[in-house]
Amino acid sequence: MVLAGGEGTRLRPYTTVLPKPLMPIADRPVLDIVVRQLHRDGFERVTIATGYLAELIETFFRDGSQYGLAIDYHRESEPLGTAGALALIDGMDEQDVLVMNGDTLTDIDYAEFLEAHCASDAAATIATTRRKVQVELGVPRCENGDATRLTSYTEKPILPYDASMGIYCFAPRALDYITPGERLDFPQLVMRLIAADEIVRMWRSENYWLDIGRHDDYERAVEEFEQYRERLLPAD
Questions:
Q1: Is residue 134 part of a domain?
Q2: How many domains does the structure of the chain reveal?
Q3: What is the pLDDT of residues 127-136, one digit of tens each?
Q4: Domain containing 49 — which CATH number?
Q5: Taking Cα atoms as reference points, which of 118, 84, 70 lies closest to residue 98?
Q6: Which member of 17, 84, 95, 226 has the greatest number of CB atoms within 10 A?
Q7: Are 161 and 172 in contact (CB under 8 A)?
């Protein structure tokens, strides 16, 4: 399932005339790249959740036959968040499913990710990438038991963290935590699963990845595409 219904407000004014998944990266829309990758990795059916400017997406991808797979659509009459639509789509509760944002540019192997999830005991698995943040201030640390005595001081440290790639796998039981018709985002669903003592796992990836939701990331994707073209775009 590909989520392609958002308004892309952070990319305005571009997204006043195009939905974000149809934003061009070099010579093709980002969602065109994603669908070609899914076909490459052996997927046979893709459901695209549409909303904002849905007609443009549905007209571009049609039934998916030009990609060698079947594409159907779930058009939201009102926004249900990133996870809310999962409970309304036929067949989503029958098998493990791969769900992703439609504005993600990556060379991840989607089949490998789904297979790793299916082989685990997880209700949900989140693909993650390693990122670093530069702290622009000095950071003091105190020893345990004494909140004022410093044990170290680091000037402008670089701190690593795991970031969600906007790509998920869900077991059928995860849908039991979504009320049909409610607005729900993925972080809320994940926290519900954790609160219910369900297992949620990370799948760490070292693959190329960019979320093109902001102007600087979109411009970076356009600049870097040719460098990574062979990895990102399957041969026709």
A1: no
A2: 1
A3: 999 999 999 9
A4: 3.90.550.10
A5: 118
A6: 84
A7: no
